[in-house]
Amino acid sequence: MQYEKRTIDFKSIKEMPREDRPRERLHRLGPKGVSDIELLCVVLGSGSSGRPVQDLAQDILEMIDRGEICPEDLKKVPGLGPAKAASICAGLELGRRMAGSKPRSCRSPASIFELIRHYGDRMQEHFLVIMLNGAHELMGVNVVTVGLVNRTVVHPREVFSDPLKMRATAIVLAHNHPSGNLEPSPDDLEVTMRLRKAGILLGIEVLDHIIFSSDNYMSMSESGELL
Fold first, then answer.
1. What are the backbone angles phi and psi of residue 173, rounded to the nearest 5°?
2. Residues 138, 130: Cα–Cα separation, whole Å
3. Taking the CA of residue 85 as centre, how many other CA atoms within 13 Å lie in the half-sphere pointing to its CB?
4. Which residues pair with 206 in a beta bridge?
5. Which residues share a beta bridge with 208?
6. Closest CA to 222 of 206, 204, 209
7. Which residues does residue 68 pair with via DSSP β-bridges, in sequence order?
8. Cα 9 from chain centroid (whole Å)
9. Handedness of CA 68, 108, 180, 177 (dihedral sign)
10. Cα–chain-centroid distance for residue 97?
């Protein structure tokens, strides 16, 4: 099954053809076949007065990317009440606990891509750090920056802060290209080399830098860019 890039631009879910509505698509394709915004639409169920559910979902998605996922943060979203804010937080925490119950091996670019591909349909570049232990098992995924990837924005201090706290032994860098063009830019290459050098000093190996869309990826390790 191919992971579909998906945006929702109807004013109301009810205006959409029934087969294209988030809930129906989830039943047809399974949860892995729909986008993050569609999953949030299903969880929310409906919008509020003056705000369709997809607008609420988009605002929530941006807050989650920034790490703002407590009920008090989510209640700042216009049209999102305390009950739905609590439901979102409960769902995220339950997913985190279930995901953390079994170590997940990340020994190849393909396995990393499956872990992060849901970021591929974001409209802005998201720079991610995937943290691994000595057995190359997943310790966590952090969104470091949202916006263009360059040496000014992606600073080693921000990239290695959590890996150091969690005692990760290796990391994989990744960011999405909203254009779908997976060729690394000069800034991509420069940032990668800078972070690899910093990792050597800190004792945390940078294994790879993956550039991806919602349905494909390019690994600098596989392409020889990290030699």
1. -90, 150
2. 7
3. 17
4. 171
5. 172
6. 209
7. none
8. 21
9. positive
10. 18
Determine how many CB atoms are found less than 10 A away from the CB of residue 64: 17
Q: pTM value?
A: 0.67
d(CA 144, CA 147): 10
Amino acid at the residue 119: Y
Which three-class secondary structure string do you get for 49-95?
CCECHHHHHHHHHHHHHCCCCCHHHHCCCCCCCHHHHHHHHHHHHHH
Angstrom distance (rounded) from CA 165 to CA 174: 20
Spatial separation of the C-alpha atoms in residues 199 and 99, rounded to whole Å: 27
**For residue 9, what pLDDT band results from cuts at 50, 70 and 90?**
low
Is 7 strand, coil or helix? Answer: coil
> What count of residues does the chain have?
227
The tokens 């559910």 sit on which residue?
A: 53
Q: pLDDT at residue 15 above 90?
A: no
For domain 109-223, which architecture applies? 3-Layer(aba) Sandwich (3.40)
3-state secondary structure of 26: helix
Phi-psi group of 208: left, alpha or beta (phi > 0 → left; psi -120 to 50 → alpha; rest → beta)? beta
